[in-house]
Amino acid sequence: DRLPELLRRMPKAELHIHIEGSLEPELMFEMARRNDVKLAYSSVDELRRAYDFNNLQSFLDIYYAGASVLQTEQDFYDMCWAYLERAHADRVLRAEIFFDPQTHTVRGVPMGAVIEGLHRACQDAQTQLGIDAELILCFLRHLSEQEALDTLEEALPWRDRFIGVGLDSSEVGHPPEKFARVFARCGELGLHRVAHAGEEGPPAYIWSALDVLKAERIDHGVQSSKDAKLMQRLAQQRTALTVCPLSNLKLCVFPQLAQHNIRQLLEAGLAVTVNSDDPAYFGGYLNTNFIEIFAATGMDAGHAYQLARNSFEASFADAATRQRDI
Ligand code: ADE
Ligand code: ZN
């Protein structure tokens, strides 16, 4: 069977990767040591054994605790560079990378250390690996809109270092409309806008991400299959969904990969893409996501080509770059 080889070697864009979710336990322990931060686990193995989640919140609790080792600009550089080298091995040509500044600034880490460290890794990826990498600043939706507005202001000195904004963290109980004003402001600033919606939350959250936040892509969006009208709209507008199969499996959004609805969404004409979300926590980088979801759902080379093409078409790269990569 040559399908895994095709999946591994085809060029692709990754559009849904939280850089803090790429921090591998080994690097986390190394940073804990050099920054003198105490972790709740005594070894890499013990930490890995704690990666047993039953929903989004059970993951987020461990993910935010892990991020506490990140303190210096060099830490952000090292984490991001490790991801980019790994992405390069998976034939990622374009990466649009989420980061969660509030997770760090609340601990006293300067905004500049976060953004400059990540940005320098993206620049080095361009020159040393030929990867086109850009940053997307995410607001934490379990915090207030005022805190998001303050975070945006704090990041504006680095406005040219990120191409857009996103919305992540605990979904249910924090609908997109809570962030209407900050997203409107981001629109005025010419920033791209994306939002997590319909990961665990209802189709109504996808509607309001589109209509209130003016999201250009929906992160996850797998709950859209519960709403036929919404499916029609997403297909008709070709609004991309950044689907993350192994994440959905590990967070129990679907009981098994064979039950995942990605193939149904793709065949209904939605602009579906495959992504890794938090690869250090969910058991695989981009190619592993492709290989496992193809094996579980019986998708073929035609689906592979469509998913790869969708990833470039849904990216925020300029038209010339997108055309070259497709
Ligand atoms: N932050 C990191 N990964 C996330 C996910 N899958 N959903 C919401 N917030 C996140
Ligand atoms: Zn995500």
Separate helix tally: 17
CATH topology description: TIM Barrel
Structural class: alpha/beta
What is the number of independent domains?
A: 1
Family: Belongs to the metallo-dependent hydrolases superfamily. Adenosine and AMP deaminases family. Adenine deaminase type 2 subfamily.
GO molecular function: adenine deaminase activity; zinc ion binding
Keywords: Hydrolase, Metal-binding, Nucleotide metabolism, Zinc
Catalytic activity: adenine + H2O + H(+) = hypoxanthine + NH4(+)
How are the elements arranged and paired?
Blueprint: H1 3-9, E1 12-18, H2 25-35, H3 44-49, H4 56-66, H5 73-89, E2 92-99, H6 101-105, H7 111-129, E3 132-140, H8 145-155, E4 164-168, H9 180-188, E5 192-197, H10 203-211, E6 217-220, H11 228-237, E7 240-243, H12 245-250, H13 262-267, E8 271-274, H14 279-282, H15 286-297, H16 301-313, H17 319-325
Parallel strand pairs: 1-2, 2-3, 3-4, 4-5, 5-6, 6-7, 7-8
The structure holds adenine and zinc ion (ZN).
The site of zinc ion (ZN) has 6 residues, from strand 1.
GO molecular function: adenine deaminase activity; zinc ion binding
Cofactor: Zn(2+)
Catalytic activity: adenine + H2O + H(+) = hypoxanthine + NH4(+)
Question: Main attributes?
Answer:
TIM Barrel; binds zinc ion; 14% strand; adenine deaminase activity; 17 helices; alpha/beta; 8 strands; eight-stranded parallel β-sheet; 326 residues; globular; binds adenine; 50% helix
How would you describe what is shown here?
This protein has 326 residues and is α/β, with parallel strands linked by helices. The protein has one domain (3-24, 72-325): TIM Barrel, CATH 3.20.20. It is built from 17 helices and 8 strands. The chain has helices at residues 3-9, 25-35, 44-49, 56-66, 73-89, 101-105, 111-129, 145-155, 180-188, 203-211, 228-237, 245-250, 262-267, 279-282, 286-297, 301-313, 319-325, and strands at 12-18, 92-99, 132-140, 164-168, 192-197, 217-220, 240-243, 271-274. An 8-stranded parallel beta sheet has the order 1-2-3-4-5-6-7-8. β5, α10 and β6 (217-220) form a beta-alpha-beta unit. α5 (73-89) packs parallel to α7 (111-129) and α8 runs parallel beside α9. The protein starts with a helix and ends with a helix. The model has no long low-confidence stretch (mean pLDDT 98). Adenine is lined by residues 18, 21, 56, 63, 168-169, 196, 199, 247, 277-278.
